[in-house]
Amino acid sequence: MNVKTKLTLIVLSLFSIVAFAQDNYLIKGKVVSQVDNLPIPGVNVIVVGTTNGVSTDFDGNYQIQVKQDDVLQFSYVGFKTQTITITNQQTLNVSLSEDTSQLDEVVVIGYGTQKKSHLTGAIAKVKGEDVAAIQSTRVDEALAGKLPGVLVQNQSGEPGAAPKIQVRAASSISGDAGPLIVVDGYPISGSIATVNPNDIESLEVLKDAASAAIYGSRGANGVILITTKKGKSGTPTFSYDAFASFSNKYRKNILKSGPEWAAFSRQEIAAGNWDLSQIDPAFVEYRLSAYENSPGAISPEDWLFRTGSQISHNISAKGGSENVNYFASLGYQNTEGVAITQGFERVNARLNLDIKLNEKLSAGLSFNGFTSDRDILAHDMRDLLRAYGVHPVIHTAESIAFVQDLNNQAIALGLAPFDDGYRGGVGPSSIFDLVPGDRVDDWQYGRANNGIGGSGDAGPAQKLDNADLWEKTFYGNVVTYLQYQIIDGLNIRTTFGGDFNDTQRYYWQGLAADSRARTNQTDLDQTDLKRTSMLGETTLNYTKVLADKHDISAIVGYEFQNTYFKGTSLTGTNVPYTDVVNFNLLDPADVVTNERDETRTRNSIFGRVQYAYDNRYLLSASVRRDGDSRFGSNERYATFPAFSLGWNVHNEEFWNDNVVNLLKLRVSTGSLGTASFLGSYDSLSLLNAGPTVDGLGFLLPVNANNPNLTWQTNTETNFGVDLGFLNNRLRLSVDYYTSDIKDMLIRKTQSVVNTGYNSIIVNGGDMTSSGLEIELSANPIQTEDFNWNFNFNLSTVNTEITDLVDVDELPQVQYGQSGRGPIFRNYVGGEIGEMWGLETIGEVEMRYLEDPTRNPNNTSGESYVVDQNGDGVINSDDYVKIGQATPDFYWGLNSNMSYKNFDLSMQWQGSHGAEVYNIDPLYYESQWSGRLVDSFDANNDGIADNNGEFYIGNRRQTDSGIQDASYIALRNITLGYTFKPEWINKMGVTNLRLYAAATNLLYIMGNDYTSYNPEGIETTNTGYAGPTTYGVQVGASPIVRSFTFGLNVNF
Amino acid sequence: MKKIYLFITTLLLVTACNNDLEQFPPNIASADSLTDFAGVLNAAYFYQLGTVTPMAVMGDFRADNALMFEEPYPSFDRYNSDLLDMEDQFFEPFYIAAYRSILSTNTIIANSTSTTDVGEAKFLRALSYFKLVKVFGPVPVNLNPPVVNEDTAQLVRQPVADVYNNVIIPDLQDAIAALDNSGSKGRASQIAAHALLGKVYMQMGDFGSAEIHLASVMSDAAAAGVTLQANFADIFGSGNDLNSEIIYATQMSASITDEYGFTEFTGWFIGNDSKAFDPLDTDLSDAYDAAGDVVRKDLTVDVPNLRSIKYLSEDPDHDFIEIRLADIILLLAEARNENTNASGAQSATILGLLDDIRTRAGLPSLSGTATTQATVRQAIADERRLELAFEGHRWFDLVRTGTVDAEMGQTINANYYLFPVPISEILASDGVITQNVGY
Question: Is the confidence at residue A19, as pLDDT, over 50?
Fold first, then answer.
């Protein structure tokens, strides 16, 4: 061997040594999350450019063969991918940070999820933590002002009462049916109240028809998809949230009590504004000093309203092993309302299990239980508050002495003694038999013509103490699913579940609530209703990305749902006056029993295809066919298609994303149906059995046979643009939609002569509605210490009736309370539920009252009106449009700031342009049997002599009841402090936050609005026919301002 | 693997459960399935309850027997369009109750095979239309069972004469033929049909035909178990429900609630409703005094407290007496006076018919106190007022005899003899049903 050969051999062996040194070796390490330093199992670790890859195990550990200069990539959903070049280290520990990029965010859509970048419909999303942060009793209250196109309105204001949720305009014509609530893929038959706000991971609202069409016949009012929290593999983590709050009604008292009225009266008399020439001055003085001196006089508002309180506790645990994840929570909340006797108590429990049976098969099980007890104000608030604040609730020795003395004064003035006003009842029959501790009745203080007492009614305390109204609910929901992966990308999933809703409602009104102790005014009613539903659904899902450009997903499914109602109701009257109240103390003839046994069934098939090309061109198409047993036999089935397109312009090559980094155009159109307010058997004519004096009677059937009763169909088109600026620090979305509703289900009024009832249910016409939704979100300041982001949304709604089948106008309806209230007109070319009445030009002045001091707070109760057609007569020909209850636009503003460990968030909400017809002033301002002076209209021709104007009583369909229902509210402001991890980690706590918050800290009402709650709308009086008669307010429970202190702990 | 497939298939089958879309309630019958109409007849009687108090209030408060107190109720005592304020309290429940009764009777008449059921139904239908015509004047006529009909043309109000001649009179004649007198006084009977037909003819002013039927009531009375009570007090009070003097009464019960939901007539008259605080109109008590009537006065009115005590108390069990024998006797006298006493010669005999009523009231016979047709007429009318006060007759008597202005002491526009039609009906029928002139 010569030298050259030896050198070559040495060099070659050296190379082989080097080559040997560059060989694969096993690198190890651990991957943790930067957020909480906990290991992340399942992270993908791959060597870039090869097929060499592993996953981290349960403890976050991995090991992989690498060689120097290999690039290792660590990726996991929800975390920013990291790539690290190998430099011969033996161990490589990685800490992954959370990926909060909105572009890759996943949005839940019907029957699946979709990347936000591929979305073509109008879907609004709220994160679970934003919902829980509002400290409200219910999920739907927490949504107020957060989502464009979703209006949440507190119609009743009572704790635990369901607010009305209106998604866009569609539901404004479908009766009071709210949106469909789908929890983890299961459409629940309970209300949204059964979901604990702390359990929510995210909430999506499907607003446009194309997104909701996959739900077919139930999606017309919008669909709310709730995803609850799921477990996560790893050691269990716990979370405890608690808060306590105090609340009061927002608005100060609106009525004057007796002494305040006397002071006001004296002032007006001294100023010469009132004319007392027709009244004996001694009588006036007698009355005014009685108002002033009545011992213990309390305003009904001071008696009825109090400081309410609320406490809430919630504890949850999440964790899991490699194959099983769990999430469990338990919540308790107890509220005392701001009006006495109001209260709401609830308990929620949830368990979610996700099980991976093997690689291809996964299953899940979730349980949700809910129970609530709601104490409801047992007597109409309007009636309680219209009492006069001239006497105490319970007699004292002073008040009895006062009454007897007042009686003597009255007799001395030649007036009737007070005892003449006694008309029966359970208390003493003479003012001389009163003892301290007796409840006060109005007649004991005289009547309007001889004293200061009010009506012959029982006092408000009598009415409320002798009535009781509560509602208990038990709800349980069990859902299971099984999912099997057939081949890569194709899986079949079956969901099966049931829910059970048991409601019990009880109402008692006793003998002492009636001033004359009439037994037929007593009630003892109890209703028990069990509603169960079963749903089964099977879907075949396919998702695949082909050639890196074609992203396809398709779904085909079948669903059936059966709902059963079983219940009994007892209605009793002539309740005996005993300490213990029980149905078996009533005469059997006085108890009427009714039974309810109904079944509703529904079958559906549906399918959807979604396709995205290169993340630029997006397409989605779906179709659903539903059949429902509630419809007439000729019209059971309907098909609902939807189609949408989108274009991610910013992903185009030609697009320069220096300024505008996101530009997406989308259009969607779809058709949905709704069964609206239909009962189970409204298309059938059924016998209506009832008791009569001679025995069993078959009363007139309520419905007429209508085999053509069918769906109300809503076809909606949505145009949308999404823009992002400055790397998505500023985002703007604008959506414009038009929707066309056909075959509107309405209760059409008709003459009683035909069927004995004044309304029938028909598919009555068409309506179009449209609106604009704007959402602006920005993150103006984003520094290490200080972060501020806000979100603003604005929505407009317009509705117009376009066709009413054979007529130009539906029969007009007068709705309100005892003949007070506007005329509702629904005609082609107008909005739905327009209120019409006489136009007033001012109230008749107090100086024309014969006796202005007569009843506290009284006014003339008459207004000058306009004779529109100049025919010299005031009648319905002079009616004009006086208002409408749908707002012109509504908005919300959510702002979040954080500075170091402090956080401050605010939520504003406003609504403008709605009017409400407020009935309450027609009662508390009425002068009842008082009169105007004769000289006001000497010849009794209906024209005032002083100014030549026509005048009429306010209660006669005038616009004096119309008030502005607009408002701006600071719904919530929260200031929180998160403790530094170093301080608390020693206690084993990972996160501790304390906060203080206020709800409705500021609530600005319209200038002319005189009651407590501009959002309140009356929907329970007889004659209410849905949105066609929507807009009257009678005694709405007040807006409440509360202050809260709370904490969140994670450990 | 196979087990998995089996499991999945089972699940698929479960979810593919067939659920029938044809659903009927298991515990309620379809309206088409009725064969026995006794229940519908009971319902027709039941609906009459809602007409009772409105008519009682209209009959006495509108006239000079009773007064309202708290606004807007005194619109009853004024004769202008103010009365529209009372529509939802009285006229609308009355209208609804009457038509519901009519529709129930239409179902029976169209479908039932039992002649007595049809006879009772026809009586009730005639009674309902009679009440409607007395209150509103022309009214829509519907003789068909309930059916949805969106065509408003058939809702046109028929003239009063047509309603009488085409509906009320033929129905009552059929009822007379079909019924006997074996049932209770709360149900239709032959004698009740005769009596009602007599009243109908009196309302129409056809005294000749009226007299025939009223006379036949008198002759059938004893056999049918209808006799005058010996004491005036024994006619009233719920303990005396369905006593022998009653020919037909609408039965009321505390356990049964009806279309009219407010204070019942017994409460109104006794002054228990604060809207009519002291309901008695002193014009009535003066009339008792002028006649020297003590018995009936003490049993009917309580002057110091200005109220009526005829029904003893506010009693929800007290039946409403639609027709009683004294009423028929007075009408018969009135008819005979019109038919046979033009000269005044029959005055004594005619006034003698009232003797039993007068004796019971502790008063002497009226024979001889009036000798001309006109004065006899007045005497009978006055007696009628004292006997039937607070039974819902006065206003309707004044209107039918044309003595409104004379008795009320003021000139009242004839438009206000009738009551306003419910506004909801006018609106719902798009104006096909018109309002009465003046309102």
Answer: no
